[in-house]
Write a structure and sequence with these properties.
single chain, 319 residues, ten-stranded mixed sheet, 11 helices, alpha/beta
Length: 319
């Protein structure tokens, strides 16, 4: 094939969107973050975007924050506006599954394409530094006296911190239906509410609150992990006699309607990004556990997690 004819064919494939990402110069990727700025999905999406660029897997990454309804609003927009786009990604995770279970939105994860799980993490419960409640025991005593007086702040309804609050209530003999849970559209809003004393207690991934804990602006009470986190002097709920353990995880999906080849290309780009130095630094800084999982294994994992979370939520009186 003559060089000019070859170039024309390459340009035609690129225009049609069928040119493999590996053949294109580094891709111009679009990242849907279905939460407001400042939270775990936002931090994850931007860390991944930087790693994609640092690894040479993307020339540029643009971000679109669309918070609300445990990610369902962003999911619907992503599903509808990115069909067939091989350069589109969406951050998601356990919180989105919980939101789908409780909210039953018209658009669910069956409308988009699973790519990879990235990390796992556990939640921490905190109170403002000047709170009269000094320990989780204090919170539980107040909860038993008057459940409605304890405002639990966190992500959308169905988030892992919401589920954990309901599980705690059930374990200590309080009706989970009486939990006074205040949902926020993103980690930034939840953080502001906790620092401002607008909620009694707040929960989120440890990474979201770590800087405020270290600065003495938040007092950590307990973790939802089975054992203490490395280098973190915070007791687990189990240590405190509360039989609750609950993990969180985050991953990415691609657009609906992409081809198997395009899905593989995106998966390869993500795998390449997780080897970048900046991604390894993000894991360490945020106390994220690397948990890369791709392909049919990840797809089955999401299905199993959905069933498991639903069972937990039914038991906790949330569904």
């Amino acid at each position: 094939m003559r060089r000019d004819a070859f170039l024309k064919s390459i340009l035609a494939l690129a225009a049609a969107g069928t040119l493999p990402l590996s053949v294109q110069a580094a891709a111009n990727l679009k990242m849907m973050i279905p939460a407001n700025p400042g939270g775990g999905w936002d931090t994850t999406g931007r860390a991944l975007g930087k790693a994609l660029q640092d690894a040479g897997a993307a020339a540029t990454v643009t971000y679109d924050n669309k918070g609300g309804a445990a990610g369902a609003i962003g999911l619907a927009q992503f599903s509808n506006s990115s069909k067939g786009d091989p350069n589109a990604l969406m951050v998601m995770g356990a919180v989105m599954l919980g939101g789908i279970i409780t909210g039953k939105p018209p658009v669910d994860l069956s409308k988009v394409t699973p790519i990879a799980r990235l990390t796992s993490e556990y939640n921490v419960f905190v109170v403002p530094a000047d709170s009269p409640l000094k320990t989780m025991k204090d919170v539980i005593e107040q909860l038993k006296k008057d459940p409605g007086s304890v405002k639990w702040g966190g992500g959308s309804r169905g988030s892992t911190e919401h589920i954990a609050a309901a599980m705690i209530a059930r374990d200590v003999g309080v009706d989970p239906g009486k939990i006074n849970y205040v949902a926020f559209r993103g980690g930034g809003e939840a953080t502001a509410a906790i620092l401002g004393g607008n909620v009694t207690i707040g929960g989120s991934g440890y990474s979201e609150f770590s800087e405020y804990i270290k600065a003495g602006k938040m007092r950590p009470l307990s973790l939802t992990s089975p054992t203490r986190l490395k280098g973190v002097d915070i007791p687990t709920l189990k240590e405190l006699g509360i039989n609750v353990t609950l993990g969180n995880w985050r991953g990415v999906y691609g657009a609906a309607g992409i081809t198997p080849a395009q899905r593989k290309e995106l998966t390869d780009l993500i795998a390449k990004a997780t080897k970048a130095k900046s991604w390894q630094e993000a894991l360490e800084k945020n106390n994220w556990t690397p948990a890369l999982m791709t392909g049919p294994e990840f797809e089955k994992f999401v299905d199993d997690e959905f069933a498991s979370l639903r069972a937990i939520m039914v038991k906790a009186g949330m569904v």
